[in-house]
Amino acid sequence: MNDIIRAALLAALLSMACASVKPEPGPNVANPSLRATLLKMEVADQNIRKQALAQYKKTGDRMTIPMLWVFMRMNSVDKTNTRRMHGIIDKYGWPGKTMVGSDGAGAAFLLVQHADWDTVFQKKCLPLLQKAADEGEASKSDMAYLTHRIRVAAGREQLYGTQCSWKDTIVQLEPIEDSLHVDERRAEVGLYPLAVYIKVTKFTMQHGSSVDNMLKPGSPASESLKEILGPYLKSEDSLKK
After folding, report:
1. Which of 102, 141, 161, 229 could in theory staple to 233 by disulfide, Cβ–Cβ 3.0 to 4.6 A?
2. Where are the alpha helices (DSSP H) in the chain?
């Protein structure tokens, strides 16, 4: 049971780092109504994960009744969002930056990334996201993360080193195909080197907060995290993961 909690909390921390911290101020998008819908769904996704992290800070990795309730609620939110994403994808195709802005496109990715109970849907979305990324309508790093979510769930090796587990501050990466060239592939999709990613992951787990939250002005962990990120701090795609 402890391993289940750790895996879920690690996914929550990393996904919270993926999410857009602030909506773009009045972007000129083709479908502002859809953008608003996606951002509202993203808020529900992130709020329940924040509750999970808050509960973890109180009880640790023991499966208490409050923790169990939070995870049941998270499952409910994810399933509701996934059902809504089915309808959105069927009606509009992949919601790209032109249609819903970069924050709306990022929200669409996050919601599909968390559709783990519906891997058929995730597989359906991947080529749509890949095409959007090739056309500059979506983030290549988002495409990398969804690719790995699907590959690891199917027992296949990952390509970019985004999927890992955690126990007692030890980060264990899922097997990587052609690991000698992983940093080259990461650079191609806007991700910082694997060694930096592992350090950041350890840091987020130790502090129980996401990258975005710890980089906010006034955060006591901000300076330490900036030292880890170094020159990659200015990379937008890197900071989203």
Report:
1. 229
2. 2-18, 32-59, 65-92, 97-113, 119-134, 140-153, 182-188, 194-207, 211-214, 222-229, 236-239
